[in-house]
Design brief:
117 residues, 86% helix
Length: 117
C-alpha cells in the first residue's frame, strides 16, 4: 500500500484476498456422513451428561433446602415447647394453693423455724 493507491487498487486487493479465502475454504475436504454422525452422537452424549449433572445439582439444592426447612421447623417447635413450659411454670407459681397445700407449706416453714432455734 502506498500513498498513490486509488480506490480501485484497494478494492482489487480486497477482492483478491476474499477470493483466496474462498478458494482455501473450498479446498478443505468435506466430512463424510459417518464422521458427521459420530460428531452428532458425541455432542448428544455430552448434552445428556450435562443434563444429568444439572438435574443432580438441582436435586441436591432442593434436598438442602428441604433439610434446612425441616431444621428450622424443629427449632421453632422446640422454642414453642420451651415457651409453653415457661408459661406453665409461671402459671403454677401464681396459682392459688389449696387449703391442704397451704397448711402443709405452713407446717414445713414452722418446722424449719423450730429446727433453727
Amino acid at each position: 500500500m502506498t500513498y498513490n493507491d486509488t480506490f480501485r487498487d484497494r478494492a482489487d486487493r480486497s477482492a483478491d484476498a476474499k477470493k483466496k479465502l474462498l478458494d482455501k475454504l473450498k479446498a478443505t475436504p468435506k466430512l463424510s456422513e459417518a464422521e458427521l454422525a459420530e460428531r452428532r452422537e458425541a455432542r448428544l452424549k455430552k448434552e445428556a451428561e450435562e443434563d444429568e449433572a444439572r438435574a443432580a445439582k438441582k436435586a441436591a439444592i432442593e434436598k438442602a433446602k428441604a433439610d434446612k426447612l425441616a431444621e428450622e421447623a424443629a427449632a421453632r417447635e422446640a422454642e414453642a415447647e420451651a415457651a409453653r413450659a415457661a408459661k406453665e411454670k409461671l402459671a403454677k407459681s401464681f396459682a392459688i394453693p389449696s387449703a391442704a397445700e397451704a397448711k402443709a407449706a405452713r407446717d414445713a416453714r414452722y418446722a424449719a423455724r423450730k429446727s433453727r432455734k
